[in-house]
Amino acid sequence: MKRNNIFLTNVSALTMALALPATTVAAQDIAPTVLDEIIVVGTGLPTEVMRNPSSVQVLGETEIRRVPPSSVAQILAGVPGVRVSESGIERIKIRGESSERVSIMIDGQAITDHTNYGTPILIAPDSIERIEVVRGPSSVASGNRAIGGVVNIVTKRGADKPVEITASAGYLSANEGYRTSLSAAGTVGDFDYRLTWSQSELGDRRTPEGTLTPSGRADRDLSGHVGYRIGNHYFGAKVQDYDLSADVYTGDPNFTIDLPKRDLRKYGVFYEGTDLTPWLTDFKVNLFSQTIDREYRSDITFPTGPFMMNVLSTSDDMQTTSGLNIRANMDFAPGHRTVVGLELEDDQLEAYKTSTVSMIPPFGPPTESSSYSDASIQTLSVFAQHEAELTSRTTATFGARYYHVQSSLDRYEIDGVAQPGEKNSDDRLLGSAGLVHELTDNTILRASISQGYTYPSLSQLYLTSSGGGGTTIGNPDLKPEQATNYEIGARINTGAVVFDGTLFYTDSRDYIASIATGNPNEYQYENVNSAKSYGAEIGAEFDPAGWGVRPYVTAAAIRREFRYENGYATADSGSPGFMGTFGVRGDWTAGRVEGTWDVFLRGESAARQRDDTGAIVDQSDAYATLNLRASAMLTDNLRINFEAANLTNESYRPINQIQAAGRSFSLFVTGTF
Q: I need a labelling partner for 436 at 20 to 30 A (CA). Which of 21, 357, 656, 671 fits?
């Protein structure tokens, strides 16, 4: 074979370079000035995190490399309100919303997905410069599939010198796996370049209860960047070739799921112009094409009367996406900034699916069926966002995005017989508004209203899929899912205290779910469910005495009330009510060697999930794990990162996840020359 739970780190731990003087190289490595980091996905305008009206967080390169790079998802597991969802391939949930409702972007370009599982993260951690995360609906600034939030992964470009070589190798005992990477980067005159290769192979997961077989995965990532600067004009090109495969652990020897291929090929060119006129501060154009090749196989055997029934299902999909993004930032008057943009996207999906049903012992020949589909979505959206200084301490932001979406089933065959085509379209106007007030020089108050929008996937609209759970039929009359989010928050940075807190309420409707049609084991997608979520997120770090030993805490409390199509409502929607991290971190020096240490507890409360009858379909117990991270700069060019996880070897399974790993460690060595 090629090769969860909610984890929270603190928001403010990332900002300690503002709060404390950077006395050592190691201290600088673990304390990026996140409140001064610039984030674009929150408002569409370059804005410091401290003064952003949205719930945002930036994970800089120095923060990313503190976490053993088993996967990008595990790095994101440290963001408040974020959960890592595992079904062989890791995906992201935000504020209780499923991964289908979270937009995953690479360099501002969305990875589209038309499965029923949600968008995976198809990039290795070694290629990443920073990750921008927006929690809560953000479709005005960030586009489709942003009801839960947005994850924008910004990739690296060239290095500061002509040639820089970086090599990394690490071992992860939880899977008896490894990850290695090698990159060459530099700048020569007006040219800059980077070439990165990364590979990992993670075996089956080891838990206190035993090894989960099969549960391994592997990836290989090859990416390149080249850029050329002429004055204030910058031209560039990026390519990526990413292979991913995984086994899905089901816990049932009679039920197997194999994901032998989830591969991405991407090509893009871009232009960036700065200060082109006194009023046009930035102008960007991105043109890209990406292809995702996916294979899926499930095999289930179950009793039916005096016989056993075996259902073998396969799917071979090819998804091709072409896109054009244009964005202009303008300053027409002092105290005013405006961004306008246009996005075009053409998404094509070819899917070939088969299903074979057999009786055991044999009772006649197997029943075989197949389908072929060719469907597409074309999306045009235009947006504008404006920021105005109302007073010297108060700034307002407001914006809107208009969507025009057309989709069609261009060709559909069942067992070789042509079926009628279908069409769907939508026109939608969304809005957002935010207010930021500087109470003092180091205290910011903020409030915002934002909307989210998720257009149905091609699978939900047009395709029929079969498996052990029955047959699900697409519905061309589906409407987009929508959400409106209201939140207030505060950020404080006094030097000895860093604090970031949020209160939010989100009203979501027109959720798409599969509903029984009345025929045996047959379902169809419908707009039927809704949800209301509210809660609080907080992060704080303290060093009142200036000792360099910094206690910190991050926590999120979420209540998500889910309403099914039959009117039954429940707060047992599969989201833990509380999750958080409590820890102490600091720096150490031994001779010429400098480093960092971090000891923390991470856990979440018990959780339950009920179906539309009130029956419990999954539940989990509360848990907390004790963990240790440490780093050492052996020389200016050689770094070691170490993590010991779940030191007490606690046995636990977060809700809707597989059993978590037991006591384990990770060790990575990185050299830069």
A: 21
